[in-house]
Amino acid sequence: MIIDGSESSLRHFLGNLPAVDQVGADSRAAMLATRSIKTASKKWAIDLAISMVDLTTLEGADTPGKVKALCTKAVRPDPMDSSVPSVGAVCVYNDMVKIARTQLDAIGGGAIHVAAVTTAFPSGRASIEVKRQDTQDAINNGATEIDMVIDRGAFLSGNLGKVFDEIVLIKSLCGDRAHLKVILETGELVTYDNVRKASYLAMLAGADFIKTSTGKIAPAATAPVVLVMLEAVRDFYQLSGRRIGVKPAGGIRNTKDAIKQLVLVNETAGPEWLKPSLFRIGASALLNDLLMQRMKMREGFYSSPNYVTLD
Question: Do strands 281-283 and 53-56 pair parallel, antiparallel, or not at all (unpaired)?
Fold first, then answer.
């Protein structure tokens, strides 16, 4: 696998990828969605899903108080049950990174990552200098994960080198201080073939994770799209020896949805990907439902929705 980053080498490599069987991808995703997990394994699956959550708030009305409360919940999702694991990360806008990092460190959440959305999220429409500064600010403020968006306009118009070079630049800024998640915004890529090509382009450029969506565009993390991305990371590992993570985001709101994602991972990429370092779920409302289902398994009945905090 020889890629020098030139437009010609990228076109040659991506052009020779096998086409995605759309009917096959849809059918397999639908079939896997029917799989059930036995009661004995359900609590394990719920706890695993909790540990994979990137607890997210990306609203214009975000305040320091809201972010601090979210961080508290990230460390102790259920204040009454210390056996509930912490989440994988807190995901916020750039200007909230320092607040989140300070709060997490103050309450024993030093192991929880702070993920910052950068590079002119969610559109990706900005100069490279703006994207560079956006990312550098996030890292300087304590972000240990960078969720960058690709320039979908450049990708769809065939300017693959531009997309590749921007990912390489942002990865170089991350260095060993932060992991890089590359958001493809699959709802705007139109075809599964484009999703596969964008996945490979991001991985070739140095992505540590590939992420479906910003959560601002529909459709977002559909099961067939996640399947295609999981196949890409599996096959890329066979080619390169590097395991790349996957992060679906947008539309995963309840425990059933989360468990379907875990089944997809296990049956497509393999059990090696069933850990927070290689699979995350970007969500805001999901954690509450996971907690409610966990309580139901423990107590035998559903607690009031008021038991969990609203985010």
Answer: parallel
